[in-house]
Amino acid sequence: MTRSIYLIGCPLKHSISPDFQQAALDYCGLDIRYEPREVEEQLLPLMVEELRAPQTLGANVTVPYKEKVVHLVDRLDDLARAVGAVNTIVNEDGSLTGYNTDVDGFLAALGRAGFEPRGKVVVILGAGGAARAVGFALLVEHAALLMVANRTRARAERLVDDLGRYAREAGIVTQVVAVPWEEDWLKGAVRRCQLVVNCTTLGLRHTPDEGKSPLTDDMLSGDVMVCDLVYNPRETPLLKVARRIGARTIDGLAMLVYQGAAAFKLWTGEKPPLEIMFQAAEKALTEKGGLSL
Ligand code: NAP
Description:
It is a single chain. The protein is of the alpha/beta class. The protein has two domains: about 130 residues, Rossmann fold (3-Layer(aba) Sandwich); about 150 residues, Rossmann fold, CATH 3.40.50.720. The chain has ten helices and twelve strands. The strands form two sheets. Strands 2-1-3-5-6-4 form a six-stranded mixed β-sheet, sandwiched between helices. A six-stranded parallel β-sheet has the order 9-8-7-10-11-12, with helices on both faces. Helix 1 crosses helix 9 and helix 9 crosses helix 10. It is globular. The structure holds NADP nicotinamide-adenine-dinucleotide phosphate. The site of NADP nicotinamide-adenine-dinucleotide phosphate has 28 residues, from helix 4, helix 5 and helix 9.
């Protein structure tokens, strides 16, 4: 019997997860199909219910549902509970467990780029599911200060409260503050930091925000590391700005593959073929322009 893993989100046109996950499943000789399911929010609970079927191993969850599915699964593993966002669901005999592999994926991507978060000042742009994982990762790695800026201020404040509470309970001294989503404030925050992470959807291909950057040339300086979680296009408008002014950059591809590899292990129990995944992801982005549907 062919088994299934789904990718749940909306929109999904930009996603290359089906390309590199299917390449890995095929390479390992597993009779499993990885299929995108673009669902509107009102159908999300029904879609999650479908994951309980015996032939379904689970799912990846992506924009904009990582926080919403937290309440739809039966159990959360400790990391997903602490982060407050789920990007991977595993079905075991009809019971669904939510995991978060974005945290490890992000840290692996930073490590690959040689960036050590300990003691650093970081600006996090966005306060959705991905920003939660990034904030949590930087907290547990003992960054000195996290400044969270989000278009919807209340969401940034919620994230700051959650991260601050976790830090206090865990005895972590990282400071976490919200910064207004306004040019002067963003400029001031970016000037103080060593790392900026774009966790918004600005710049994402096949969306109305394609071609947009959260920061402009005059807001960035050359001595800051700029990381964009958006991976399609690989060189986002923000990364173009960063490269133009001589800043070091980290694109979203490595995090995507590392978080996907961790999810692959959770569903299949097999060692993920990382090189195959990287090759397939790069091929999908360069040759197909990221179109996966
Ligand atoms: P999400 O939960 O839907 O959050 C979206 C974020 O983008 C929110 O902070 C939202 O602000 C902000 N945003 C949306 N449109 C905006 C606009 N026009 N101007 C300013 N801010 C805007 O999505 P997510 O799951 O966190 O994902 C965010 C991005 O990260 C996506 O592009 C996703 O593909 C990427 N990602 C990449 C990886 C990777 O492995 N490379 C992993 C995870 C996520 P509001 O709160 O104001 O709506």
